Amino acid sequence: MGVKQKRPLTPGQRFQVSDDYSDLTKFEPEKSLLSRLPRTAGRDCRGRVSARHRGGGNLRLYRQIDFKRDKDMVARVLGIEYDPNRNARIALLEYEDGERRYILAPIGLNDGDKVTSGVEVDIKPGNALPLSSIPVGTTIHNIELEPGRGGKMARSAGAGVMLLAKEKGYAIIKMTSGEQRMVHLSCRATVGQVGNLDAKNVFLGKAGKRRHLGWRPQVRGVAMNPCDHPHGGGEGKAPIGRKQPVTPWGKPTLGKKTRKPRRRSERFILKRRK
After folding, report:
1. Cβ-contact 15, 180 below 8 angstroms
2. Does the CA dihedral 120-122-124-126 come out positive or negative?
3. What would the mean pLDDT of 52-60 be, rounded to a whole number?
4. Distance from C-alpha of 142 to C-alpha of 128, rounded to nearest angstrom
5. Exposure string (b/e) for 211-234, b if CB count within 10 Å is 16 or more?
6. In the chain, where the domains are located
7. For residue range 1-22, what is the model confidence (pLDDT) as tens digits?
8. What are the helix (H) ranges across 3-110?
9. Average pLDDT, stretch 87-116?
10. In terms of DSSP bridges, do strands 161-167 and 170-174 run parallel, antiparallel, or are they unpaired?
11. Which segment of the chain is annotated as a signal peptide (predicted)?
């Protein structure tokens, strides 16, 4: 995968950096693995806005990804595809019995490669196995938090987790953020690092591309009236006027820690992220 710099023929292309999609080998999705997701536009079951600045955007069909990797059978890679619902690439697998599934495409996975999952399988990109069977020092992704519940961690483009140690029935892993935590050895993970490393280098360049992704415009609080936002009001260009920034409803934000102090998973975190 790579990126390409647009020629500055228009203001929107002056700083635009787009994906060149050179790593794709299959351009039509598998119809049997497509499903339609409801478009909520950031509204909850009551019809009220629960996530601001969302709505519109292009119509996208969801690709059903196999995060569990619970089929212990050899599969062949049919192609690497683009997924509009995530920044990582996906790979279409065809198992020996004819069933097809999508998985996250790691670095080094190509068309025609054989991947499998199980307890005693080779340590190569794309294979899934329990943490108890993975050697210390291996880079992994798509890691389960609970056995059999499917991968929850390290699923975005370029994500790779280092397996540091194993002790007392748990594996110690180091996340890309620097956080170290314990995961049960019976949880499954996939070997390798998620592909599409240059996804972080893509720069949209103009507001229209962000609207295509379903993001509506955002207005700064200091540009509003005082009846609309606590930061609003004042003569001319006024500062926030508070000790710390707050949300439109007066709650502290921008650096305020929101994690519950007595969360159940607190005991599994050995070192906080940077």
Report:
1. no
2. negative
3. 93
4. 9
5. beebbeeeeebbeeeeeebbbbee
6. 3-200, 224-265
7. 689 998 999 999 999 999 999 9
8. none
9. 95
10. antiparallel
11. none
Question: Which homologous superfamily is 3-200 in?
Answer: Nucleic acid-binding proteins (2.40.50.140)
Q: What is the DSSP letter of 135?
A: P
Q: How far is CA 30 from CA 63, 91, 218, in A?
A: 8, 11, 36
Domain 224-265 class? few secondary structures
| Cα 71 to the center of its chain, rounded Å | 23
Q: In angstroms, how far is the first alpha carbon of the chain from the final one?
A: 28
Where would I find the H helices in the chain? 207-212
Other CB atoms within a 10 A radius of the CB of residue 160 amount to 18
β-bridge mates for residue 153, sequence order: 143
Contact 21, 89 (CB under 8 A): no
pLDDT at 274 over 80: no
